[in-house]
Amino acid sequence: MNSGSSKLQRNIFIASFIIPTFVFYCIFTVYPVLQGLYYSMFDWSGMSQHKEFVGFRNFKDLFHDPIVWKAIGNDYFLVVGKVIGIMTIATFFAVALTRFRFKLAGFFRSIFFIPNILSVVVIGVLWNFIYNPQIGFLNGFLSLFTKDTVSITWLGFTSHTIWMLLPPTIWAGIGFYMILLIAAIQNIPDSLYEASELEGANQWHQFSKITIPLVWEQMKVSILNIMMTTLNGSFVIVWIMTQGGPDNSTQVMGSYLYQMAFQQYHFGYGASIGVLILVLSLITTVALQRLLRHETVELG
Amino acid sequence: MNLGIRNPVAKGFFYILLLLWTVSVIYPLLWTLLDSLKDNEQFFIHAPWSLPRFPLLWSNFSYVWSKYNFNTYFVNSLIVTVGSTVLGLLLSAMTAYVLARYTFRGSNFLYLLYIASMMIPFILALIPLFFLMNSMHLINTKLGLIFVYASSLLAFGIFVLAGFFKSLPKELEESAQIDGASHFGTFFRIMLPLAQPGLVTVAIINVLNIWNEYVVGTIIVNDPTQYTLPIEIAVMQQEMQYRTEWGPLFAALLVTIVPVLIMYILFQRKIASGITAGAVK
């Protein structure tokens, strides 16, 4: 076989394996993302042909829209709450299930991951029943300790309802990050722990001097991941549990985007909220990466 | 050498925390099962954790299956999940193989493009996606869902599978090509079967994601005959404000949960390895 035809065959092969995927990807992912940037410059109801170019006016309007500020605040409230809640509990479980040598560690590990295989819709509906004022588990449980039947509408307070979204999202997130941290801890050579043991280090010392520094990179990835998924994905749990209410008090950027675009037909404005989410995600990623910079310990 | 925690009080305390979390995970599932067997009266009169009364209302299941058309939604979910997983897996495996094994102009750039797109919030694409699907007449079709889902699976699939193909020994391909196999033959007859463990891992993670997907679904589909399970669950919950059929709602939740639960029990290890492979970007 001469090298010219074999080179041609090679190129045909590469092209036929690369191009279909790339074209497909461009149509259904890249193009919509770029279109999103483009639409954010228009005043457009989506239903009519009329699409008025307004430049950055949508962004100026965003800036003066109190609900947007509320939504941004809620998004970051959830980010901070989830990072603290998930990282604390997941790290604790990961250490407990690796370093503490519990029997049944494998069992706990399998069980703790289960919420991560459930649909967010299922999780939202389940927790709606936990919070349900009449037939819910939480009020039923509290009623055991009181004379009168407790009937608190947990999701009905403009000042506190956003707090009620933290338990389901933390509950649903633990398993995934626990698995990541377990894998990272298992990569730490046993000899490090053995040496520290000989020097009389207790569990806490081992945790703070060996485990944390050596899994720091993984924790950083986890924190960034929680931030990203929260800014981009909180919308579903909010939509299922509170629809952004009461009185916009649990609105997040994603739910506001959905409401503006698909319920009130301000597609241009909705798209500009999407751009805002993108910009804030990028800024927060950079900021977090700076904040979490830490001399990483490389294993020799 | 390291014996873990030795202080029995501390050990007992940690055990209790682990058991409490176990209960918090298992109980909602158990509760779903128990409540799916109750009638309305039991919801209002008895404590939420009370056991269902005999005879158990298994009819809640046949009720959602036929009256609420869960047979349709189940089949829709199945078609969309299988379709998009197969399509996404094939496309990402082909690209991953070429990116892992061949160098050509732009190959690095292409790889980075796929990986970087994992950082872009998909929600930005939601509005244009609606109009795109509309203009392609893919609104309210399973094919539309399959295309969007398959595309959303590509970056993760390419990332994990490229790593997997790189780990396979090069000699295999070389000897196959010496034996006269074409590039295509080498891929389909040798490399793809060898990559099976990686393919299975990616497939399972994808199936879990697609089976549970809601946002894209609810935007592309508004015709009830095309709903997938999560869409219908969300709609059903809304309707409960006007009619109270709690038992059937819990039965519906269980119908949605059980398939992924079975899958999890069968493929736990694969799922864990997929997560660790995917998260370390």
Automatic annotation (TrEMBL), chain A:
One of its GO terms (biological process) is transmembrane transport. The keyword 4Fe-4S does not apply. It is found in: Cell membrane. The chain crosses the membrane at residues 12-34, 76-98, 110-130, 162-185, 223-242, 267-288. It is a multi-pass membrane protein. The keyword Nucleotidyltransferase does not apply. Coiled coil: none annotated. InterPro entries: ABC_transporter_permease, MetI-like, MetI-like_sf. One of its GO terms (cellular component) is plasma membrane. Gene3D superfamilies: MetI-like. CDD domains: TM_PBP2 (cd06261). Keywords: Cell membrane, Membrane, Transmembrane, Transmembrane helix, Transport. Its main location: membrane. Residues 72-288 form the ABC transmembrane type-1 domain. Belongs to the binding-protein-dependent transport system permease family. This is Sugar ABC transporter permease. The lineage of its organism: Bacteria, Bacillati, Bacillota, Bacilli, Bacillales.
TrEMBL record, chain B:
Residues 74-267 form the ABC transmembrane type-1 domain. The chain crosses the membrane at residues 12-34, 73-99, 111-131, 143-165, 186-208, 246-267. The keyword Transmembrane applies. GO terms for biological process: transmembrane transport. Keywords: Cell membrane, Membrane, Transmembrane, Transmembrane helix, Transport. InterPro entries: MetI-like, MetI-like_sf. One of its GO terms (cellular component) is plasma membrane. It is found in: Cell membrane. It is a multi-pass membrane protein. Belongs to the binding-protein-dependent transport system permease family. This is Carbohydrate ABC transporter permease.
